[in-house]
Design brief:
Helix content: 40-55%
Number of strands: 6
Number of helices: 7
Order of helices and strands: EEHHEHEHHEHEH
Structural class: mainly alpha
Strand content: 5-15%
Largest sheet: 2 strands, antiparallel
């Protein structure tokens, strides 16, 4: 070094995922840490996924999805008559989604029409189950009979 002064080498920045040195500037180290944090967050199952995955094996089988759909139907069917009306969907939004209804997404009438096979303005238990099964098949992009968190996220 100039003038006889020693220059201390910067400590190596380590990649938390691989425990190997990360080359480059401190900015690249920050980006590497952000990427690692994003990967960890993506791997963590959502509350909805954990609720569906009743045996905690990290995937949601068709039978687990079916059981979860029955639970959601029962939550919305406040008078327990085996049918869901627009009023019941509206009243159950917070219980089902965990948050208040917002401008995003479909309103209750649209949700009813989407699954109302016989167009009578209500959803029967059978119509709801058929819709849930079709949704499962749509989300199961690799057709292995199981949903991952990524498939659930992509299909929601």
């Amino acid at each position: 070094a100039a003038g006889g002064a020693e220059t201390a080498a910067a400590p190596a920045v380590m990649n938390a995922a691989t425990a190997s040195p990360v080359g480059g500037t401190p900015a690249s180290a920050g980006l590497s840490l952000l990427a690692t944090a994003a990967a960890v967050a993506a791997a963590k199952p959502s509350a909805e996924f954990r609720a569906m995955d009743s045996n905690s094996d990290g995937v949601v089988s068709s039978s687990e999805h079916e059981a979860y759909a029955r639970k959601m139907f029962d939550l919305m069917d406040s008078n327990h008559d085996g049918r869901i009306t627009v009023a019941e969907v509206d009243a159950s939004v917070g219980k089902v989604t965990g948050h208040a209804a917002g401008a995003r997404g479909m309103n209750a009438a649209q949700k009813i029409r989407k699954r109302d096979v016989n167009a009578d303005g209500i959803i029967s238990r059978t119509e709801y189950a058929m819709g849930a099964a079709a949704k499962f098949q749509q989300m199961d992009v690799n057709s292995n009979g199981e949903l991952t968190q990524q498939e659930l996220d992509a299909g929601s």
